[in-house]
Every structure is written in structure tokens, then in C-alpha cells.
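Table S2 (text version). Query chain:
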Amino acid sequence: MGAADWCLSSAGAALVLATSSDEEHPAENMADGSSETFWTTTGMFPQEFIIGFPKCVKISKVAIQCYLDLQHTEGQLQMEEFPIPDLQATYLRFIIKSAFDHFVSVHRVMAEGTAENT
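Corresponding C-alpha cell output:
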């Protein structure tokens, strides 16, 4: 099996923890595969979220699509990719220490990798 996006709910990923909660923009939106839906922070920092995988995965790249977090780009989503040297993980923890606004939206989180043999 080739590399897959293990942060998708359709791949078995689950949002284990999110420090902010908004009924209209829940954390589960980050794992639905759509850039149209999102999780939003509630205005204080730091914020964090944890994504759990259904099995141990060898991660080769992590990407995050967000708004007003990594750069100040008014009116457009930002995509940042982070190559990872074959990290084995069952959970990924993200901490947002600060941002360019009081509220940040995270639209998608992707973790490209392959399942470890169990």
C-alpha cells in the first residue's frame, strides 16, 4: 500500500483533544478532507489539538492548512508542509503558541505515511 493521508476521519483518524470548542466549527472538521470546513480557536493562546491514528504509522510529511496562523495573509488560506524523517506515531500533537489575530482557523491537517506492520 502506498502513502496515505492518515489524518482523515475516513482513514480512521480521530480528534482526541482540542482546547477550543465551537459548535459551528468543531475540531472534527479538520479531519473531514474539506478546505471549506474548519476548527476555530476561541481567542486565547496557546491552543492545541491531538489527532489519533487507528494504528502505528510511519509519517514522512505533515501539512497544515490554516488562516491567520503561520503568516499574515489576509483573505487567503495558508498551506505549510513539514517533511518528517520517517517518524513512527500513533498520535500527532499540534500546539499553536500565537497567531496574527485572536482567532485562528485550521481547515485541514494531513499526515502522509504508511501503516506499520503489526
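Notes on Table S2: DSSP finds no helices and six strands in the chain. The mean pLDDT is 89.
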